[in-house]
């Protein structure tokens, strides 16, 4: 049986899942609309939420939209619908990044209410609400090889490569990321752009409206006391920092790092990278792993090229991921569904 048109409740559930995706500085640069037949969702870029200095190419915006698209796929499976994706379907409308067709019924596994594994091998839907960026120190506990292999395979299913780095690769990426962070810290314009996405913590200013995007100070995490792990200095360096200074703690001696790469480096590749990022992150969450995205080194073309292992050939690193076991990060604010979902495009009832 062909599923009927999505109801307003279905669309709100889908949009809430899509809106829970990660994005650079929690900018949430997406909008959703039902397809003309009412059996799918269109994903649009929200260019008013771009981060132009840190994301001059627009890659991070597309990665964020791809992550939102993957959450839509997971939520569609929870509704008992099979998802068919078309990336960049209309050359005349570059803001339309993807169309998700949910008109087909899902298989018996993973349908609505079953709690089954569905099309992703595991039930990832609960992890959408549980996923967090953790900028805290991780423990020295090893990631089991079987778990790492499952994450690598998940990225491969999305047409990307997740490389778990050995010690030499970790040290190379650490050096590149440290250089990137130093450049950002000495660039007033980039510092100002970063600061524009910081939000006062709840209760700091009772008269201020509640944040719906950006980064509260509570989610930033500490700096590494031993300066080995180059976390982003969101608050800036004195005398330029705003708000409370980031504290310092001792991080893991050698972080566990991965790179997420694509064979090409265009909008479709970036959207695939976003879907892979979220698939890996949700699966990691199921396994109790924490992740942090290091975006700093991909913001500089010369440094980004140095992230790759020459033995891997001419692949394009889209993101660096730090993973491990440790405390969950704090939740970030989210835009209301009404702000990201345009129901005015939803078709009306068919005439009798």
Spatial strand order of the main sheet: 1-2-4-3
**Number of separate helices:** 9
Global structural class: alpha+beta
Number of strands: 12
- Overall pLDDT confidence: 89
Unreliably modeled segments: 108-115, 237-241
Question: Per the principal axes of the C-alpha atoms, what is the gross shape?
Answer: globular
Biggest sheet overview: 4 strands, antiparallel
Order of helices and strands: HEEHEEHHEHHEEEEEHEHEH
C-alpha Rg (nearest Å): 20 Å
Helix content: 25-40%
Q: Which range does the strand content fall in?
A: 15-25%
Terminal CA distance:
21 Å
Tell me about this structure:
- With 352 residues, the chain is of the alpha+beta class.
- It contains nine helices and twelve strands.
- Strands 1-2-4-3 form a four-stranded antiparallel beta sheet, covered by helices on one side. The chain has a four-stranded antiparallel beta sheet with strand order 5-10-12-11, sandwiched between helices. It has a two-stranded parallel ribbon with strand order 6-7.
- Strand 3 and strand 4 form a beta hairpin.
Summarize the structure.
This protein has 352 residues and is of the alpha+beta class. The chain is 31% helix and 17% strand. Helix 1 crosses helix 2 and helix 4 (145-157) packs antiparallel against helix 7 (267-286).
